[in-house]
Specification:
The protein is α+β, with helices and mostly antiparallel strands. Helix content is 30%, strand content 29%. It has two domains: 117 residues, Aminopeptidase (3-Layer(aba) Sandwich); 159 residues, 3-Layer(aba) Sandwich (Aminopeptidase). The chain is built from eight helices and 14 strands. The longest helix has 15 residues.
Length: 292
């Protein structure tokens, strides 16, 4: 039986993910990464599909992350295939043209499973780090641009900005006001780490943003530039560089050590920007897709 996440499923999902990590099935994912997945569940309950049998969670699939895990003792019973089929319908209902999956790195069995279902390698997602010793200048925004802290009063205008900035992204992102508000309740992910850009002559018109977070990790907080985006018509004017510099300055004011971020390999403009600013690639996460 497949249904979406419901309040009370958290403990079983956490146990499933952590058991998979302990078995070596999720290389590259830390304990903190997986705890973060579970913490975010209530913010988007319809974004997680579960396979249940006699009340036990045997598999989980998040089409937008895209994470698929089946409990080891119950594999080769069609659970993964059923979850992928349900995920395809989930994506079609949202008008999406393709379905994504990120297989565990180095897993020949996972690749064979994806190929059998008609998936193909699409692109990669790069994790990057900025070493603490790399100098980055402070931001300098044009005089007609007004940088503003997001603050506690998150509005539909901010949600519309995020969605507009990522609508044409290699991995499109769409959020709701409820998701954003829930995310801001999580440790190290409050609204104080976000800067928005507005036009000075029209301060209600938001054109770009940078969101920084400091979630707890295995060895202290993990300073991260979680999201950085601009409305399409405002790209190519140097604002992305200034937002990046603001994010680095913000994080270096509260944490030491390297600063982390992630970027789709297809987003060549962003990849060049980050590498020119001193970020280096540390981990590659291949993404597979199939047309719907």
């Amino acid at each position: 039986m497949i249904h979406t996440y419901q309040h009370g499923d958290d403990e079983q999902i956490a146990a499933l993910l952590l058991d998979a990590r302990a078995a070596g099935d999720l290389p590259g994912d830390t304990h903190s990464d997986l705890r973060g997945v579970v913490e975010r569940l209530p913010g988007d309950p319809h974004g997680t599909l579960l396979f249940l049998e006699h009340g036990q969670v045997l598999g989980v699939y998040q089409p937008h992350h895209p994470l698929l895990v089946v409990r080891g003792a119950f594999r080769r019973r069609g659970i993964g295939t059923a979850l992928v089929a349900a995920g395809a319908e989930w994506s079609r209902e949202r008008g999406e043209r393709e379905q994504l999956l990120a297989p565990p790195r180095g897993s020949a069995a996972a690749i064979a499973f994806l190929e059998r279902l008609g998936f193909y390698y699409r692109s990669s997602y790069w994790e990057m780090e900025l070493p603490a010793a790399v100098p980055v200048p402070p931001p300098s925004f044009p005089t007609d641009i007004l940088p503003l802290p997001l603050g506690e009063n998150v509005t539909d205008c901010y949600v519309a900005l995020v969605n507009a900035a990522f609508a044409d992204h290699a991995a499109p992102l769409a959020v709701t006001l409820e998701q954003v508000r829930h995310a801001h309740t999580l440790p190290g992910r409050g609204p104080e780490g976000t800067l928005v850009l507005a036009l000075r002559r029209e301060p209600d018109r938001l054109i770009g943003f940078c969101r920084t977070v400091t979630p707890p990790g295995e060895q202290g907080i993990v300073p991260t530039i979680a999201l950085l985006g601009l409305r399409p018509e405002w790209r190519g004017q140097g604002l992305g560089l200034q937002l990046l510099r603001w994010g680095v300055q913000q994080l270096r004011g509260v944490a030491t050590g390297p600063i982390h971020l992630g970027v789709e390999a297809e987003n060549e403009r962003a990849l060049v920007l980050y590498e020119r600013s001193g970020f280096v690639r540390t981990s590659e996460w291949p993404r597979w897709a199939r047309a719907l």
